[in-house]
Each structure stands twice: as structure tokens, then as C-alpha cells.
Give the backbone structure.
Amino acid sequence: MKKSKKDLIVVGDRVLVKVEEGEERTNVGLYLPPTAVDNQAVQSGTIVATGPGLPLPAPDANADEPWRTSSRETRFVPMQARKGDYALFFRKAAVEITFENERYLVVPQAAILALVRDEDFNMDSL
């Protein structure tokens, strides 16, 4: 994710989520203030960046000649989450950060419960 001259790079199997601000509405139509939403176990938001995934070990990592170097590139287990997905995740697993005066949550992929993806919508076209 790039804003101005700084880069925010998400590492490993984590995603960067932009949390929705304001009132939340319950199933029966009640509006909850942000303080009530903060106490819930599940939260949601839009994914704005993802890490590359978990790195796979090199196939020759247990070789008998550890001084040999491999020119092989690092491979990763791909992430299910993509930029632009709407994610439902466990709030306790998230870490809140502020980057250039914007609030985000860093969430491990294992804490994501469900993703909502609109195949027709492309965030890169914005």
C-alpha cells in the first residue's frame, strides 16, 4: 500500500484492514455506538493490502552440504484474502496501527472467518 512517499508493506500471512468507522446497525435495526462495537468478538472491514503468504522451506534445506547456496527464489503458500475483499475476523487477533493519520488493523489470515468478494469490482482500477 502506497501513500505519498512512504510504503507500508505487509509481511507474512497477514492482511491490512481498513476498519469502518461510525455507527453499526444490529439485525433488529438498532444502532450501536463505536464503544459497543469495540467490545464485540467479531469485527469487519475492507482489506487494503496483503502479505505474500507463508514462505515454503527450500527443498534442499536439509542437505548434507549446508555451505552450498541455492539460487532458488523463495516460494510462498498463497493467501486466500485479496485486496478489496470484505473480511470478518476475530477482533482479539488484530493489532491496531496508525499510518499517516489513518487507523488500520493488521490481522493474521488464520483469524479471518469469512471473506466477501465481488469479482466484478477491481480495486486496482481506482
